[in-house]
Amino acid sequence: MVSSPHEAMHRVFQDHPGLFSRVGPALGVDFPAYTSFDVMPTDLTELQPVERRVDTLLRFDTERDGSFLLAVEAQGRKDPAKLASWAYYLGYLNSKHEVPPVLLVVCQDRATARWASQPIRIGPAAWTSFAVFPLVAGPHNLPVITDPAEAAEDLALAVLAAVTHAKEPDVGAILKALSAALRDVPEDVADPLTELTAQGLGKLPAADLWRNLMAVDLSFYKSPISQEIRAEGEARALLVVLQARGFELPAATEQKVSECRDSRTLNQWLSRAATADSLDEVFHED
User: At the top level of its lineage, which domain of life is listed (predicted)?
Assistant: First the structure.
């Protein structure tokens, strides 16, 4: 099953293709600025019943070096089977599109990044017939952005820094800087980045910190994650009122309230709870 961090680590390049040229220096490679780009189909399946799908595929056109393809793979752990897949991806892409491909692997931990950085050499011991040299982005080489002003200068890079440093001790400072930077941008810009960050943090402890930061001042955030946080608060408030009024809550009722994420319904229940004589009065359907 594809995880949320997996999606965020490559989707950020789909949503912000120019991010790749800005990540390049951190990886030790100077790619030229693009003049145009296309988001390419990710399905690399051949006619034979063998499905191979790259996470994100982009095509960049540049004035200096012509065109190239960027295949972005999000890698959460070591997976020896991926080495052959990556070699296949590049060979197939080069053959199909006749445009030179580049493989970028994005990792959330240093051990996986070290593993993914090793050249993939194909051929007998006496001769390497085909070699793949992945570019790897992760906590070992991406910047630690803890200054809100710096985060505001490149929000997409700040999101990628937060996601790739999610397991690092300094992730808290990165998230605080990102949260502060997002407060000063339009909602239509902030909301997707807020969600992408939450997705990238998955179920790691840093995800709870991000949720708390989003809850500090929800007037800035109207994205699904902030709506969910508001609903959780409303559900807790309803349970407190019901208990304070002496109602004995069946487990099923408590679960129903705790899992409800519709603010309109929760507010309706809360309004009834103040004067209702029974739980049926609180939860009856109009």
Answer: Bacteria
Alpha carbon distance, N-terminus to C-terminus of the chain: 40
Q: For the chain, list the strands marked E by DSSP.
A: 34-39, 56-62, 66-75, 101-107, 120-122, 130-132, 135-137
Cα–Cα distances in Å, from 16 out to 21, 157, 197, 248? 10, 9, 14, 51
Q: Which residues pair with 53 in a beta bridge?
A: 43
Q: CA dist 34 to 157, 231, 277, Å?
A: 17, 43, 67
Q: Alpha-carbon distance 233 to 60, whole Å?
A: 45
Cα–Cα distance for residue pair 254/239, rounded to 1 Å: 7
Euclidean distance between CA atoms 62 and 209, whole angstroms: 40
> Phi and psi for 39 in degrees, rounded to 5?
-85, 120
Beta bridge pairs of residue 68: 60
Q: What is the pTM of this model?
A: 0.71
Q: pLDDT, tens digit, for every residue of 207-223?
A: 888 888 877 644 455 56
pLDDT in tens, 249-283: 888 888 888 888 777 888 788 778 777 888 888 88
